[in-house]
Amino acid sequence: MATRVAYTLDSTLDSVNMVEQTAEQLAIKAGFSEEDLHKITMSVREAAVNAVLHGNAYDPGKKITVAYETTPDALAITISDEGKGLDPQTVPDPLAEENLLKTSGRGIFLIRSFMDEVKIRELHPGTEIKLVKHMSVPETGAKEQ
Amino acid sequence: MSLKSSARQVDGITVLDLSGRITLGEGSVVLRDTIREVLGKGEKKILLNLGDVTYIDSSGIGELVSAFTAVRKEGGELKLLNLTKKVHDLLQITKLYTVFDVKDDEATAISSFTK
Predict the structure, then answer these.
(1) In this predicted structure, what is the pLDDT of residue A85?
(2) Which of B24, B86, B99 lies nearest to residue A101, judging by beta carbons?
(3) Per-residue pLDDT for A142 more than 50?
(4) Which domains does chain B have, with CATH numbers?
(5) Which of A41, A117, B17, B45 could make a disulfide contact with A132, Cβ separation 3.0–4.6 Å?
(6) Chain B, nearest residue to A103 by Cα
(7) How do residues B15-60 score in pLDDT, each as one tens digit?
(8) Burial A57-71 (b: 16+ CB within 10 A, else e)
(9) Distance from CA of A52 to the nearest CA of B (A)
């Protein structure tokens, strides 16, 4: 059975911290490993920063919405903003030699590295990003018939 | 928990012991101001002890890169010490592990600076 909660928040760093902390609490409750916990919280933080900073540009008139959905085998977080939109195809590759010493541009790359599913969709205006992490099946926990 | 920084001198090297989080906002600002202050005093050989840094986000990674290039621009050297597994993995997947000079022993790190 899925449980879903959603919030509408101001475009502030306090919201980013709250979004991250809520994801951490839900991931702990769901039973994710410590390693996955870090991957989830970091990805959610990066997505929230993108929404608040690059999307809404801290505009007090624009909000972000965050929805968390927990199922027995996964945690999904959807974050949307009201900004000018993001075309993921235009994000430079942070691993390219010429970009290695750039001071920004690694957020989406880290999210894609850490989460199992990442979907980015333009909202006109704004961007929605959905992150999914599946519960790992323990290697020693093979199902017995 | 925000970032805390304390400086000490070892054989002419400025060792900055950092603890907390290097993230967008306060943590990144503390690191930026600390590096600026150290460079302002003419100290150009800097060892960042990240042993007690519990978390770095992409903004924090950017701040480390910024510190690295700022010190190099001044003709100095900046090295990293005592990475946690999380930070080590982050630098690996962003290919920055090959950019930074990373050490896991302070004495070795200190002696590796150009005299």
Answers:
(1) 86
(2) B99
(3) no
(4) 4-112 (3.30.750.24)
(5) A117
(6) B62
(7) 999 999 999 988 899 999 999 999 999 999 999 999 999 999 999 9
(8) eeeeebbbbbebbbe
(9) 11
pLDDT, tens only, B35-47: 999 999 999 999 9
Q: Where are the alpha helices (DSSP H) in chain A?
A: 13-30, 34-49, 107-114
Place of tokens 């989406």: A108
For A61-65, A140-144, B10-14, B35-39, which range has the lowest pLDDT when averaged over its residues? A140-144
3-state secondary structure (DSSP) of residue A82? coil
Domain residue extents for chain A: 3-134
Sheet holding A74-80, edge to edge: A3-10, A63-71, A74-80, A127-134, A117-122
DSSP-assigned states of every residue in B53-64: EEEE-HHHHHHH
Q: How many CA atoms lie less than 13 Å away from A19 in the CB half-sphere? A: 32
Burial environment of residue A88 by CB neighbours within 10 A (0 to 12, 13 to 18, 19 or more): middle
Please identify which residue in the block is written with the tokens 């205006």.
A125
Q: Do A119 and A130 form a contact (C-beta atoms < 8 A)? A: yes
Which among B52, B23, B50 is positioned nearest to A41, based on CA atoms? B23
Q: What confidence tens digit (pLDDT) does each residue in A17-36 have? A: 999 999 999 999 999 999 99
Which of B22, B24, B72 should one mutate to test binding to chain A, selecting the residue with the greatest count of A CBs within 10 A? Answer: B24
Mean pLDDT of all residues in chain A? 92
Q: Alpha carbon of A132 to those of A75, A92, B34: distances in Å?
A: 6, 23, 37
Report the complex ipTM: 0.89
CB contact under 8 A, A103 and B24: no
